[in-house]
Fold this sequence. Notes:
Layout: H1 6-34, H2 39-65, H3 71-79, H4 85-109, H5 125-147, H6 154-168, H7 177-183, H8 197-218, H9 224-227
Amino acid sequence: MTQAPLHRRLFAELLGSAFLAAVVIGSGIAAHTLSPNDVGLQLFENAAATAAGLFAIILMFGPVSGGHFNPVVSLVDASFGGLRWRDASAYVPAQIAGCVLGALAANTMFSDALVSISAKHRGSPAHLFSEVIATLGLLLLIFSLARTKRGTSAPAAVGAYIGASYFFTSSTSFANPAIDVGRMFSKTFAGIAPASVPGFLLAQLIGGAVAIGVIRYLYPDVTPEEAAEVVMPHPDQLVPPAPQLATGSR
């Protein structure tokens, strides 16, 4: 069994991240258009579309790259040996670039300006603490699934967690540095002002660091092979060729 080539995994992470940003931002634009006077309904529509979309996107691209679409997930995975540090350092820019492309695509699909910088400030202490908690919970979920051989449940479980965390966090659970950057480029319901992004990035990295400690405490014997199954099992392994029968004279 051999791993899928890095270039193919990076392309999967780029496309998956682009679809994720397009789902988050596009559904936010649609929600604001369809329910202009009801913020609660807008949030529900945005959360439901994001949860369902994330489920589908992980199913689409997870078999190739693992379906990270999130720099913190990739970095934490590397810390457990599930991903080479060299590969993780390549995943991160692919994820960020994908989220930016997805934001531009969402803007275009709804006839907005291709690039519009958000003015939506989200940098309060409550927002930042929410991002620590949201990121911690996400990582605990996916690593517990991988450690207990339930990785095939990850697409549904991750989608459900993110959908729920839209409502139980004041920040609406970005939990992803790449999506922070992408959502800067859309002056919509789902956007985030550039001034708020550094705080979100720091909070998410703190959440990732805390998650490493908690995972090591809960699962002290987690192996690199188990970590390699994050987010979902990926025969980013290729099926080996069938053995050939020896031939010879009778």
